[in-house]
Amino acid sequence: MLHREGSASYQELNEDVEQGTENSASLETRKEEEENIGSIILPDGESGTSSPSVPFIKSCLKNVFAVILLFIYLLLMAVAVFLVYQTSVDFREKLKHPVMSVSYKEVSLYDAPGIAFYPGKAQLLSCKHHYYDQIPPLVNLGQPGEIECTTQKISYADPFTNQTMKYALIVQGPRDVRKRELVFLQFHLNETDQDFSAIDYLLFSSFQEFLSSPEKANFMKDCESSYSSWKFSGGFRTWVKMSLVKTKEEDGSETVEFKQETSVVNYIDKRPKPGSDQLFFVVFEWKDPLIQTVQDIVTANPWNMIALLCGIFLALFKAADFAKLSIKWMIKIRKRHLKRQSQAMNRIT
Fold first, then answer.
1. DSSP structural state of residue 286
2. Whether residue 171 sits in one domain with residue 256
3. Dist. CA 152–CA 189, nearest whole Å
4. Contact 149, 129 (CB under 8 A)
5. What is the pLDDT of residues 237-251, one digit of tens each?
6. Are 214 and 247 part of one and the same domain?
7. CATH number, residue 200
8. Residue 279, strand partner residues
9. Which is more confident, 158 or 52?
10. Which of 64, 199, 281, 337 could form a disulfide with 237 if both were Cys (CB 3.0 to 4.6 A apart)?
11. Domain containing 83: what range?
12. Residue 147 is assigned to a structural domain of this protein
């Protein structure tokens, strides 16, 4: 009988120990579930009692930074597109409006220009070459003197009316600009029925081209059509300083133009018996040894445009690739988060 009572008490004690072990295991399981529940985001109105875990905070920060970077790269893409548009607009504007470029070339000898005089009834008395701006005193005024210049006379039809004939006296101009070579000419006009007396002249680029031209009349007609003409008056000494301007056209051709600076000095007639005739004095000299060249330059460089566009498109592709990877990474993080949330909900249920 004592043996029965001892076995019964031992069985009761064993049952109590097993029940305590089961209670502790269930308690640990409940704590793990509570921790899992606290580490997930519940929908609105179902907030957990425990605070967010550190991994969740890091994940949120990563998502925020990824979104910020995505917006930055989208902004850069917008700026790149604007730069492409603005660059193309500037390129077209530069093509339409080229920039004028002026350059100077220094020479010691010019190609001797041609000076075409239209004296009318006036007569050439003398023509000489002098140097260093030194003109000796005049002698035998009104009388024919020495003609040391190379001259030619020519007649041709007026290029504008083509009905009247024009008489021209062609004189070779100065060459040596270093020695200040000048050409001094004197004309004489006996009487005139006009109120004002003047002699017309024009300058063309090369006297040698005139000499070598087989059609000198047509050559002079072309010169008169292309160049401007000027006048110098009687009773004065007109000093003409010339400068040469070359202009390069878009088709590659080149035009020549003369610029002049003129100074006029009154002539004091010291003849014993000055009559009603008129004396004309004119001097031609180069102003400086610089030939001015004018041309239009297109500042739009297509290679710079291509390089800029390549860099912009490369930035666009890199930005699009980064945005694509960022979106994939955000989707992956979201799926992982939803998976953990569903697992936790499954444990709860």
1. E
2. yes
3. 20
4. yes
5. 999 999 999 888 777
6. yes
7. 2.60.470
8. 188
9. 158
10. 281
11. 63-94
12. yes
